[in-house]
Amino acid sequence: MNTLLPTSTAGSLPKPSWLARPGTLWSPWKLEGDELVEGRQDALRVSLAEQERAGIDIVSDGEQTRQHFVTTFIEHLGGVDFERRETVRIRDRYDASVPTVVGAVERKNPVFVEDARFLRRQTTRPIKWALPGPMTMIDTLHDIHYRSREKLAWEFATILNQEARELEAAGVDIIQFDEPAFNVFFDEVNDWGIATLEKAIEGLRCETAVHICYGYGIKANTDWKRTLGSEWRQYERIFPRLRSSRVDLVSLECHNSRVPMELIELLRDKKVMVGAIDVASDTIESPEDVADTLRKALRFVDADKLYPCTNCGMAPLARGVACGKLEALSAGAELVRRELASQDEAGSVVPG
Length: 352
Ligand SMILES: [Zn+2]
What we know:
Blueprint: H1 33-54, H2 71-75, E1 77-90, E2 94-107, H3 113-122, E3 128-132, H4 134-138, E4 142-143, H5 149-169, E5 174-178, H6 186-200, E6 207-212, H7 219-226, H8 234-243, E7 249-253, E8 271-275, H9 287-297, E9 306-309, H10 319-348
Parallel strand pairs: 2-4, 3-5, 5-6, 6-7, 7-8, 8-9
Antiparallel strand pairs: 1-2
Helix pairs in contact: 1-3, 1-10, 5-6, 6-8, 9-10
Bound molecules: zinc ion.
């Protein structure tokens, strides 16, 4: 990236009301067949235009191409029976009815590659594409075939690697893996979670990112956050291993969270996507709010490695709110860019 402090979003943006029900995760599509294909592409164009107009530097599809960040990917795989559902506890936090792994999992066809090609044709800006991470995938399934979380995670890592290589060939600049499960299962993360993530990015020449958040602004997550105490130190358990991994960027929740900013120090040398937009609130941050979070982060991450971002996806928000937040992110980053530039000038006249 040539731009200092390049902005991006963690992933999803709200869908237009003609495509899916507003304010709803897992909303069913309102169109079907060819109309759905075209409708998703139109929604992608709108979402991209909103990002570009707001001045977002690294753009995405706003996840207009998928119903949900984990299940849509899994729907395209063999070995998973969506009729056979079981209620399981997701991320140790809430119960959900999920499909069952009944045989060897396989990727029969590319999942998002056509969509990524479509996005690539619409913009000259760098593009980022999100995929679910292996650990978050296994946590969203009932498994009666492998009967081992680790074994299934390795299988998914292989499948994700196939998809990622084709996304790279389609012109994606940054491939991001969403791993909210990394904030919950610390021992597994260190034992094999990060290792499976490295398998998923094996052989890639494009940049890679991992997004680790405290979840969408839904009730189950905000209730959980209330139980976490005055300081959220979960990141501390996984950053040392993550720092030694091959992943280039780490996307984190920072603004309005109780994560002590100094934990970022544990990721020294990594590029850090600092969440400077709260996705659990309808209040639109001011550019100054954003700048304030970025300035705090700059104490622990070098300016050339700081990537201003949102805390998580904004799918459940109203479209106007999400647009306002994109603009604030962009304007806040610009404030800090100017400060850094004037510091540079001031610095250059100091002798020696
Ligand atoms: Zn997230």
